[in-house]
Amino acid sequence: MKKIPLFIFFNLFIKVTLTAQINTPIDLDAVTDAHFLNGIQILNELISIPNDSNDPAQLVPNIEWCEDNLENRGWDVKRLETKSFPLLFAEKSVPNAEKTVLFYFHIDGQPVDKKRWNQPDPFQPTLKKRNETGQWETIPMELLKTDYDPNWRIFARSSSDDKGPFAMFLTAWDAMIERKLMPNYNVKVILDFEEEIGSPNLGDAVSKYKDVLAADMMLIMDGPRHLSNEPTLTFGARGISQITLTVFGPRAAQHSGHYGNYAPNPAFRLSKLLASMKDEEGRVIIPGFYDGINLTDKEKEILSRVPDDENEIKKNLGIGSTDKVGNTYQESLQYPSLNIRGMSSGWIGDEVRTIVPADAIAEIDIRLVPESDPERLFGLIRNHISNQGFHILDHNPTDEERVKYPKLIKWEGSISYQAFRTPFDSEPGIWLNKAFVRAFGKEPIKNRISGGSLPIAPFVDALNVPAVTVVTVNSDNNQHGPNENIRLGNFKEGIKTALAILTEKL
Amino acid sequence: MKKIPLFIFFNLFIKVTLTAQINTPIDLDAVTDAHFLNGIQILNELISIPNDSNDPAQLVPNIEWCEDNLENRGWDVKRLETKSFPLLFAEKSVPNAEKTVLFYFHIDGQPVDKKRWNQPDPFQPTLKKRNETGQWETIPMELLKTDYDPNWRIFARSSSDDKGPFAMFLTAWDAMIERKLMPNYNVKVILDFEEEIGSPNLGDAVSKYKDVLAADMMLIMDGPRHLSNEPTLTFGARGISQITLTVFGPRAAQHSGHYGNYAPNPAFRLSKLLASMKDEEGRVIIPGFYDGINLTDKEKEILSRVPDDENEIKKNLGIGSTDKVGNTYQESLQYPSLNIRGMSSGWIGDEVRTIVPADAIAEIDIRLVPESDPERLFGLIRNHISNQGFHILDHNPTDEERVKYPKLIKWEGSISYQAFRTPFDSEPGIWLNKAFVRAFGKEPIKNRISGGSLPIAPFVDALNVPAVTVVTVNSDNNQHGPNENIRLGNFKEGIKTALAILTEKL
Question: How far apart are CA B144 and CA B186, in angstroms?
Answer without folding.
Answer: 34
